[in-house]
Design the sequence.
């Protein structure tokens, strides 16, 4: 198996927690993994991305090559579009629908969604809302991780095990509410994908 | 005994490698992409238990010199910095080649091709070559870890500092790393030759000859280094030299193995015999290297004859910027694979001040003064979060060159008659290299207004502690700034009018004024509050 993922968002939105969950699950499943992050200047509210590469064979490049990503996983709709040059022809766009507006010239939100909808394989979801509904108002990232998990060939229990591993220190309640958000995202993606 | 693999970023792998290879002291000043080396050491329970020194220095030069002092005592030191930090540390760095080391020294230089978070891109390998020192350049996280061991071994074998050169991509990318058995730290052991570190001309001339003579030995080490590998291929129409990370981009494009002979080059000086073999067996050479075309240029030579070399200088690869799989693919002559272009609707999203940042309030006041009443005023800024005021909506910053340059450029401009000449510098940058410039101003009583933005943090690089915290006023006083012209203000919206008044007063004073807007960085404050609450 191979899964090349571009994680996208805005500095401060915490996309690295998604990378941590999926990456940890990949390790516990005995897969190879490389994950590159953006640190530094862009973290001050600029666009940030993380390249997550999982494979049952050795992974060479720390960067996902152009045109090779199986998925763009974005916590913000405009950022999902920024990385289209990396998306493979069969790749999926999975994105939160809620814009993060911190620039004066943010485009029309409807037009952004319409642009994403032109792509053959996409899932657009209000992950903020779904996190709240799952009783975890700060769980947007876990909702997104849950949606993505459906497309990654790693057993569900490894994914949930990773959440437990990463959040265990913060107590069972936090683990539970993160798993609830994760499952909500996964179920939604399941329905959408059909 | 083999332990389980750890998921480590390149930076972390180097730190863990140094800890396991018996380092006694980490020295550094923060700078992307090198910061996480020290941060990892600071959070490491192992490092704490082993009582390893791991505190920030005032700047890269003081860090390099402290590392040299630890080496003097026979112990191993690691000093890390971003590429431009090596310019600051260049004096001790280059001279350390001549003194040599006693305990092992690894100098980590983290380059930032494509300038993700930097004011320039430069290739630290060239500075190491200038200093005649061996270089390690890891292709992956495991090598980064292993090179800490190999680096100290080489350093102590030849009593020479060595450079470990990485780039942003490896620094901030994670992969599994297998750990080795830990080596003990060195005991204290002073230099056998009492004059080793005394660079008086008579001594230095002798030692420099030793360094020059060592070059052949360093090359010999590169020939047999496990990090340099000749991998044969059947298609001899081209031979490829792949340096450091570029090796990965090459292999990425040949998932079933590269058909051409390849020299994976990760330790320098370049192994001449291996290069010669590649040149002999193939029709042309393609050089893949991140940073400047150092290997390519040296192969080509001044006369550029005999060997056909392709790379950054011939347009096969872009002349500047970071390499990636696509650029390497093109250089290999393969067709592009690419997704769709980014749609035009996507807007740029430059970095910006955090909501509520004190720098915003300070700049609102500065901007009001230099746009109303003092329109000839210029603002020489410096490097830190506050450089962001060069962008909209502020656009009030006229310069940002290197750490410390704000104060000294304002002084030079004042010398030239510019009025008002303002400098804006952060508290950490001030301690890094602003103090000496302030002294210059005091000595000549230059007509400048210097803003030291004190947010109790080195914020741009992630909120490390600042040497300035609690000391700024005393430092300025000590350097000779008149007490009544050291003005502390609290940068809050409600204090806007007061700040504007203070700035105008100090502009009208013909001499050195220091205004210190003091309010903690929101991010570090938030982290502290969170910690307190947990
Ligand atoms: C020689 C050199 N070393 C390190 C850096 C990295 N660097 C850029 S900004 C900065 C911190 C600035 O801190 P401060 O001056 O307090 O400003 P703040 O970001 O807190 O506003 C550092 C360490 C650099 N650009 N150049
Ligand atoms: S990190 Fe701190 S200093 Fe930098 S912009 Fe944010 S609040 Fe301001």
Sequence:
């Amino acid at each position: 198996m191979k899964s090349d993922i571009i994680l996208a968002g805005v500095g401060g939105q915490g996309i690295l927690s998604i990378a941590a969950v999926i990456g940890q699950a990949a390790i516990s499943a005995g897969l190879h993994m490389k994950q590159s992050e953006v640190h530094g200047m862009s973290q001050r509210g600029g666009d940030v991305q993380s390249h997550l590469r999982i494979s049952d064979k050795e992974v060479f490049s720390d960067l996902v090559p152009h045109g090779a990503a199986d998925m763009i996983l974005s916590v913000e709709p405009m950022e999902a579009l920024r990385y289209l040059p990396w998306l493979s022809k069969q790749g999926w766009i999975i994105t939160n629908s809620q814009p993060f507006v911190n620039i004066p010239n943010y485009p029309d939100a409807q037009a952004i969604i319409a642009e994403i909808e032109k792509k053959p394989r996409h899932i657009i979801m209000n992950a903020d809302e779904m996190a709240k509904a799952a009783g975890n108002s700060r769980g947007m990232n876990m909702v997104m991780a849950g949606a993505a998990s459906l497309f990654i060939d790693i057993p569900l229990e490894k994914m949930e095990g990773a959440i437990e591993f990463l959040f265990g220190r913060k107590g069972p309640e936090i683990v539970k509410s993160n798993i609830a958000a994760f499952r909500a995202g996964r179920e939604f993606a399941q329905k959408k994908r059909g | 005994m083999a332990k389980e693999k750890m998921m480590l970023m390149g930076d972390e792998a180097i730190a863990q490698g140094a800890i396991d290879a018996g380092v006694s002291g980490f020295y550094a000043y923060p700078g992307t992409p090198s910061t996480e080396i020290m941060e990892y050491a600071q959070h490491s329970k192992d490092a704490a238990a082993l009582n390893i020194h791991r505190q920030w220095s005032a700047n890269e030069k003081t860090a390099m010199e402290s590392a040299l002092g630890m080496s003097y005592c026979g112990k191993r030191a690691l000093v890390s910095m971003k590429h431009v930090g090596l310019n600051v540390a260049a004096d001790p760095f280059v001279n350390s080649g001549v003194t040599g080391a006693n305990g092992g020294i690894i100098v980590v230089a983290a380059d930032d091709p494509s300038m993700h978070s930097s004011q320039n891109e430069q290739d630290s390998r060239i500075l190491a070559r200038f200093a005649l020192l061996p270089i390690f350049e890891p292709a992956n996280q495991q090598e980064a870890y292993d090179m800490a061991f190999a680096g100290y071994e080489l350093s102590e074998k030849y009593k020479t500092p060595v450079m470990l050169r990485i780039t942003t991509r490896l620094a901030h990318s994670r992969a599994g790393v297998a750990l080795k058995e830990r080596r003990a730290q060195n005991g204290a052991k002073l230099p056998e030759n009492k004059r080793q570190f005394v660079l008086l001309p008579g001594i230095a001339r002798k030692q420099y000859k030793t360094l020059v003579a060592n070059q052949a030995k360093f090359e010999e080490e590169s020939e047999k280094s496990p990090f340099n590998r000749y991998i044969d291929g059947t298609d001899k129409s081209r031979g490829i030299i792949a340096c450091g990370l570029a090796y990965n981009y090459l292999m990425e494009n040949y998932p079933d193995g590269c058909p051409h002979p390849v020299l994976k080059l990760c330790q320098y000086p370049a192994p001449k015999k291996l290069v010669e073999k590649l040149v002999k067996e193939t029709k042309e050479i393609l050089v893949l290297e991140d940073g400047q075309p150092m290997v390519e240029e040296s192969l080509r030579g001044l006369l550029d004859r005999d060997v056909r070399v392709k790379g950054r200088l011939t347009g096969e690869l872009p002349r500047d910027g970071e390499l990636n799989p696509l650029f390497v693919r093109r250089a290999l002559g393969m067709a592009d694979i690419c997704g769709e272009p980014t749609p035009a609707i996507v807007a740029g999203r430059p970095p910006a001040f955090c909501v509520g940042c004190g720098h915003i309030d300070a700049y609102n006041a500065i901007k009001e003064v230099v746009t109303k009443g003092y329109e000839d005023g210029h603002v020489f800024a410096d490097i830190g979060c506050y450089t962001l005021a060069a962008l909209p909506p502020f656009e009030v910053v006229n310069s940002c060159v290197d750490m410390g340059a704000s104060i000294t450029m304002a002084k030079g401009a004042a010398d030239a008659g510019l009025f008002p000449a303002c400098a804006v510098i952060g508290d950490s940058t001030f301690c890094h290299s602003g103090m000496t410039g302030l002294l210059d101003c005091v000595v000549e009583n230059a007509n400048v207004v210097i803003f030291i933005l004190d947010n109790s943090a080195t914020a741009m690089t992630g909120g490390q502690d600042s040497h300035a915290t609690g000391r700024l006023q005393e430092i300025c006083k000590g350097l000779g700034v008149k007490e009544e012209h050291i003005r502390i203000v609290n940068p809050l919206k409600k204090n806007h009018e007061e700040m504007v008044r203070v700035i105008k007063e100090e502009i009208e004073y013909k001499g050195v004024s220091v205004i210190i807007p003091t309010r903690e960085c929101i991010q570090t404050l938030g982290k502290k509050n969170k910690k307190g609450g947990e």
